[in-house]
Amino acid sequence: QVQLVESGGGLVQPGGSLRLSCAASGRVFSANAMGWYRQAPGKQRELVAVITTGGSTNYADSVKGRFTISRDNAKNTVSLQMNSLKSEDTAVYYCNVYEFKNGVNYWGKGTLVTVSS
User: Fold this and answer.
1) What angle do CA 92, 98, 104 make, to 5 degrees?
2) Which parts of the chain fold into alpha helices (H)?
3) What is the pLDDT tens value at each position of the chain, 117 positions in all?
4) How far apart are alpha carbons 12 and 108 in whole angstroms?
5) Distances from the Cα of 81 to the Cαs of 21, 30, 71, 85, 110, in angstroms?
6) 100 phi/psi in degrees, rounded to 5
7) Are 21 and 8 in contact (CB under 8 A)?
8) I need a labelling partner for 7 at 20 to 30 A (CA). Which of 48, 70, 91, 99 fits?
9) For the purposes of burial, counting CB atoms within 10 Å of the CB of 5, is it exposed (0-12), middle (13-18) or buried (19 or more)?
């Protein structure tokens, strides 16, 4: 079983920055995608950014140029650097690991990001 623990959420003013981190523990197959999703009140969960073991990345159009995802394969961690934050970035952010071998998704419990003045 894989456990994901997120950290780094909080309150930030518009235009500010935050860095989210997620650590995966347990047996994680080496071929996977690690990513971040978010869910705002009253909205569906959506992809923010994802990065594969090989380093390929994909971003939601709404965060391109502002957010950067990175990972450390040796430590099974993934981070999301969020710059130029906007009020519409306010959401609960969830860490995700998708294992290519068996098609299983793992989710963290989420961390709240609030962008407000």
Assistant:
1) 110
2) none
3) 889 999 999 999 999 999 999 999 988 777 789 999 999 999 999 999 999 999 999 999 999 999 999 999 989 999 999 999 999 999 999 999 999 988 899 999 999 999 999
4) 22
5) 9, 23, 11, 10, 16
6) -65, -35
7) yes
8) 99
9) middle
